[in-house]
Q: What sequence folds into this?
């Protein structure tokens, strides 16, 4: 190449270098902005929304209270009739549910217009097309002092890395159900708490309803279990009974005695799933002497991949 041709080529080469650098910079900036927006969208674990009843009615406050708990396995919309049957069968004052997606929360509000509803988001990455999933507390009475707890699983980056790596293996295996990519990440979980009232024949008593759902994988279950125990303890008070119900994905040997160390009595039940010979769903009670010891039962007429459980108090007069 001659001197004249080299001089003519240099401006073109310089332009394309600058253009390429500008495009790389713009791409990196786009990734940074996209990553930040994605982080803000997905990392909303523990976000709480509380809704008053659409058609408020006076609560039936009597000398008994019944609290139900049921892991819906993302089937709340399909099981509205069963939820209503469960509530009517046991005359539930409070219904707690786990694994409910955000679309189903709005459906529950529409179908249970006389109930007050609170929802905590666990993970927006799970059930992404329906807005994520979490836990619900529904009550015929007004819900007071509603609060939520975010229980962390994998970070957004770790979540994406695990999903991509395991998803690649699923694709190589031509497994379109993508079992490895679904099971690999450790999703965020959550807790939800609210206060309701019960009449013991003498005065109104406060009941703090607490619900939770934690992971079953060994590497996350132990720390998340401890988080639930601590948070349940934080929701206790001398002038109230705290009833903590939910899916702990752990057997009685890892729940009954440890939970007792935090001041909770956990009545034993039978299996709460068809695949385990022991319960993994529980209702534990703190300060039960205020309302009396509850009877906790597993109702096998109501099943997703978990049976529903119900705690019933026959309230007593306490001066």
A:
């Amino acid at each position: 190449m001659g001197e004249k041709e080299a001089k003519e080529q240099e401006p073109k080469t310089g332009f394309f270098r600058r253009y390429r650098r500008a495009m790389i910079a713009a791409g990196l900036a786009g990734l940074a902005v996209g990553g930040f927006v994605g982080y803000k969208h997905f990392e909303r674990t523990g976000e709480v929304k509380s809704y008053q009843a659409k058609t408020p009615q006076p609560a039936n406050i009597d000398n008994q209270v019944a609290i139900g708990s049921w892991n819906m396995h993302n089937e709340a919309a399909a099981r509205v009739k069963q939820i209503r049957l469960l509530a009517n069968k046991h005359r539930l004052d409070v219904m707690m549910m786990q694994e409910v997606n955000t679309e189903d929360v709005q459906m529950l509000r529409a179908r249970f217009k006389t109930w007050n509803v609170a929802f905590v988001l666990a993970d927006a990455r799970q059930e992404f097309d329906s807005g994520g999933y979490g836990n619900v507390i529904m009550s015929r009475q007004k819900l007071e002092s509603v609060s939520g707890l975010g229980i962390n699983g994998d970070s957004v980056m770790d979540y994406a890395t695990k999903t991509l790596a395991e998803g690649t293996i699923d694709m190589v295996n031509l497994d379109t159900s993508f079992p490895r990519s679904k099971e690999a990440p450790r999703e965020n979980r959550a807790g939800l708490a609210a206060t309701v009232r019960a009449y013991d024949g003498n005065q109104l008593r406060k009941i703090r309803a607490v619900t939770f759902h934690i992971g079953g994988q060994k590497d996350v279950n132990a720390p998340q279990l401890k988080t639930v125990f601590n948070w349940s303890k934080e929701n206790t008070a001398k002038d109230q009974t705290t009833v903590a119900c939910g899916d702990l994905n752990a057997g009685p040997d890892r729940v009954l005695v440890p939970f007792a160390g935090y001041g909770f009595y956990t009545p034993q039940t039978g299996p709460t799933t068809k695949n385990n010979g022991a319960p993994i769903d529980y209702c534990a009670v703190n300060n039960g002497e205020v309302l009396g010891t509850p009877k906790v039962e597993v109702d096998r007429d109501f099943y997703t991949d978990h049976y529903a459980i119900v705690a019933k108090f026959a309230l007593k007069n306490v001066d």
Observations:
- The chain has two domains: 1-42, 45-153+188-314.
- Confidence is low (pLDDT under 50) at residues 27-41.
